[in-house]
Design brief:
This protein folds into 2 domains: 49 residues, no CATH class; 146 residues, no CATH class. The protein is 46% helix and 18% strand. The protein is built from 6 helices and 7 strands. The longest helix is centred in the first third of the chain and has 24 residues. It is elongated.
C-alpha cells in the first residue's frame, strides 16, 4: 500500500513530504513553519535527495484495530450512561479537566510512536476549561492514515480511561468524559476539534500551509 513519501536530503533544515508527485509540503524544522510547493520545485531545489516510501507496519495495523474496536465500546458506554442518576457530590468540572489532560497525552503519545513529537506544551483555556495543550503541528508531516490516528488518539485515550472506570462500576464518573468525546468528534472549524482535523487533514487532505518559500 502506498501513501506519502519523505525526502531526506542535504538540506538538514528542511523535511519534505511528497504528495503523489504533485504538491510537496516542506517543513522548516528551525522555525516550525510549513510551505506547499510543486513537485518540480522540490526536485530542482533539493537535488541529490533520497526517497523513502512509507508503508503499513504491524504497529499501524494494531493501532487501527484498537481504534475500530473503540467505536462500538464507546457506543455501549453511551447507551448505558443514559439512565444514570447524578448526585450532588458529583464534580464534572474536575473530571472534565482531567479528561482534557488525558486527551492531550494521547496526542503526544501517538506523535512519538510515529517518530514525531509535540512541538510545545502550553497552558491555555481549551474551550472554557484550563488545561495543558500540546502542539500537534508535527502531525501534518505524516501520511494521511497516521494523521487520523494522531488526531483520534486523544479520543482513544479518553475511551480507554472510561473503560477502566466502567469495569470498576464507576460509569457515572465517565459522563463528563463521554460528553467531551462526543463533542470533540463533531467537525467544528472554529474550535478545531479532532473531528474537524480528521476531516480536514486526514480525509479531505487539505493543507493549511504557506505558499511562499
Amino acid at each position: 500500500m502506498k501513501f506519502h513519501k519523505y525526502y531526506f536530503g542535504f538540506y538538514e533544515q528542511y523535511e519534505i513530504l511528497d504528495d503523489n508527485h504533485v504538491e510537496c509540503v516542506i517543513k522548516d524544522t528551525t522555525s516550525n513553519k510549513y510551505y506547499q510547493k510543486s513537485y518540480e520545485f522540490v526536485q530542482d531545489k533539493f537535488s541529490g535527495i533520497c526517497l523513502t516510501e512509507i508503508k503499513w507496519s504491524i504497529k499501524d495495523i494494531l493501532i487501527i484495530i484498537l481504534i475500530v474496536l473503540s467505536i462500538p465500546i464507546l457506543i455501549v458506554m453511551l447507551y448505558q450512561s443514559i439512565n444514570i442518576d447524578v448526585d450532588e457530590t458529583f464534580e464534572p468540572t474536575l473530571i472534565l479537566m482531567l479528561s482534557i489532560l488525558i486527551h492531550e497525552l494521547g496526542h503526544s503519545t501517538a506523535l512519538r510512536l510515529f517518530g514525531k513529537k509535540a512541538v510545545s506544551y502550553k497552558f491555555k483555556f481549551k474551550w472554557i476549561f484550563p488545561s495543558i495543550v500540546c502542539d500537534t503541528s508535527e502531525a501534518y508531516m505524516l501520511p494521511n492514515y497516521e494523521k487520523i490516528i494522531v488526531f483520534y488518539s486523544g479520543i482513544l485515550f479518553n475511551i480507554i480511561s472510561c473503560m477502566i472506570l466502567w469495569r470498576l462500576n464507576c460509569l457515572k464518573e465517565c459522563i463528563p468524559t463521554l460528553s467531551f468525546i462526543m463533542f470533540n468528534l463533531l467537525p467544528i472549524p472554529l474550535l478545531e476539534t479532532d473531528g474537524y482535523n480528521i476531516l480536514r487533514y486526514g480525509i479531505l487532505r487539505k493543507y493549511n500551509h504557506k505558499k511562499s518559500f
